[in-house]
Amino acid sequence: EFLRLRNPAFNEICVKFMSPFMRANEVHSVSGMPYYAASAFLAIAIFPRPVAVLSLLYLVFGDPIASLVGIFWKKKAIQIIPGKSVQGTAAAFAVCALVSWFFLSSTMNLHGVALIRLTLLGGFAGALAELLPLEIDDNFTIPMVSGFILWLGFIAINLA
Predict the structure, then answer these.
(1) How far apart are CA 64 and CA 45, in angstroms?
(2) Contacts (Cβ under 8 Å, ≥6 apart) of 102
(3) Contact, 146 vs 128, CB < 8 A?
(4) In terms of CB atoms within 10 Å, which of 88, 109, 140, 158 comes out highest?
(5) In Å, what is the CA distance from 135 to each residue of 1, 90, 132, 138?
(6) How many Cβ atoms sit within 10 Å of the Cβ of residue 76?
(7) Which helix (H) or strand (E) holds 80?
(8) 64: Cβ–Cβ under 8 A, 6 or more apart, which residues?
């Protein structure tokens, strides 16, 4: 990113190849990649492995689905705050809860009340992290916020 933003010719090459994945405002400013890399590194360093994996899965699945649903419902969206809608937040909750359920039931062999609690907490954590109007890029905040909330849930039921 440093080289890309300091060298217009190199930036042009990067934008040519990465344009399908870049937002218009990232062409001449820092993209989400350094934030994603930092959050992945910190999540893996700070959280227990299942929490780190889930927090990154919330970013991978919950954030784009929330955005797509928000765009799809744009004209009928119920705005919570600028750029965030009830529909997008509900979609993030549903996707993060589903991801939690699949991950926890298959990799950790959780079942019963513990699975239900962590599934709902995961949905809440992912949706809240996506919804918060923080000034830092959501590629960083989603794994950090959701990971912290989920970690507390793991501690509460003696999994961490």
Answers:
(1) 25
(2) none
(3) yes
(4) 88
(5) 19, 22, 9, 9
(6) 8
(7) strand 79-81
(8) none
Which residues share a beta bridge with 85?
79
SS (H, E, C) 43-68: HHHHCCHHHHHHHHHHHHHHHHHHHH
User: Helix, strand or coil for residue 134?
Assistant: coil
- Token match 């009340």: residue? 113
Is 117 in contact with 14 (CB distance < 8 Å)? no
pTM: 0.84
Structure tokens at 89: 């937040």
Dist. CA 124–CA 89, nearest whole Å: 9
Residue by residue, pLDDT tens for the chain (160 residues) are 777 778 888 878 877 777 666 666 666 667 778 899 999 999 999 999 999 999 999 999 999 999 889 888 877 878 888 888 889 999 999 999 999 999 999 999 899 999 999 999 999 999 999 999 888 889 999 999 999 999 999 999 988 7
Residue written as token pair 């042009």: 12
Tokens of 126: 């992912």
Sequence letter at residue 124: F
